[in-house]
Every structure is written in C-alpha cells, then in structure tokens.
Amino acid sequence: MWKIFVISLDSDVQRRAELLPKLEGLPLDVEVIPAVDGRSGLPADLEQHVCRESIWRGTGFNPANAELACALSHQKAYQKIVDEGLDGAIILEDDAVPQPEFFEFVAERGYEHASMILLDHSSAWTFSFWRPVSLPGVQAVRLSRNADRNTAYSIKRPVAERIIQHSRPLRGLADWPVDITKFGALAAMPTIVGHPPEDGDQSHIDALRKASRAAGTPEGFRKQRVSLSHWRRKYLKIRKNFERRIS
After folding, report:
1. N or C: lower Cβ tally within 10 Å for the chain?
2. pTM of the model as a whole
C-alpha cells in the first residue's frame, strides 16, 4: 500500500508531460497532488499554518512565500498518506529526473527498508564513522544533518505523521521544516533522481528565495529576534571535524 505522489502546480503542464510518462508501468499507483502556489503571495487560508516570526527567530531568514508554499505542498502529501492509511509513499516534485537506478529501487521495493530515503539531495552530510548500507536498488548512508532539496524521497507513514505533528504551524524553512535526522533519514549514494540545473530557470523558488533574503528583517522583528543562527553556525563548524559531505 504505497503510492507515488507527484507535486505539481496546476500551470506546470509541460513538466508533468515530461515526468508522468516515465512513471508508467511502475508497480505503484501515481497520483498528482496540486501544489500550493505562493509566487504571488501565500493564500490567506494557509497563513494560519505558518509562524513567520518563529522562522525568523530560528534561522535569521525572512521566508519567501513560495518557500512556505513548497513546505505546505509537501504537507498535503503527508496528510494523504495518513488519511488513506498508506504504509508510505514516494514523493516527487514535477521537475524530478528519474535515473535508471530509480526504477530498480521501485521494482525491488527498496523504499520499504528505511523510514525515509532521500533519492535526490545536495549539501548532504554524514558522520565520517558511519558507513553506507546496501538496500534493494540503492546504497544509502544516514544523514548527520538536514540536506537540501526535497525533489524525490520515500517516506513511511509514522514519519509523515511526526512531520505533520511538529511542523504545524510551520516554524522552519523548506526544504525540511523539521530535523529529519531524528527519523533516521538516509541519503542515496549516489543520487538516483536528478534535478534541473540550479542556475537555470527551472526552479520557481530560488529567485524568490534570494529576493526575500535580500529584503532583510521583517518589520518589527529585529528588536524581538533571539539570534540562534550565530551559535548554530559555530556548532556546525565544530561538527565538520567529524563529518564528511556526500553531495
């Protein structure tokens, strides 16, 4: 009882036309989940599910609406896993580029062997004393901190439930609004799903994220802000002595 959920904006017809035919013939049902569109502002009914000040206090960043919309879109997938009583799902964004190994991973049900597996990632780190494990169709290693990108990953229902529980309202940024290392998240080595170049025009979020960062502190937040990001950077710098980067 697993599915493949494809998260896609209604307007992204071409992206779906490129991805969905590649998924035909897989042993899992494929379902498209309409993404939340935050490019022109976050819908008013969803604003109640976001705590912008908590995000600012914890990260020092002003979140872009499109960034928040991305996290809320993935929460729709988690909620469907829970509501439909699925054991889990493979979640793909519509610009995912599956590699041949991805189809082997699905065919051999590799997704059943871990609570969460990132099939695409960047800026992923693991502790140097942790070694890769062999799963059906993929080699993977446990993450020591959150990686970037949520283009493609498998997730079991208990993890989906816990992410929902700990990220409503949203208090962290996409790609992961919670610490997924607490769920034993693994990262494929090498990645088995690709992603368009980040310097291209594929991403709806990147340009808006940069503009939001450049806008500086939200009105009224500066005096209230408790800077955790400074100490977090110091902590991560020390931890690098015991870690290795895999993407």
Report:
1. N
2. 0.86
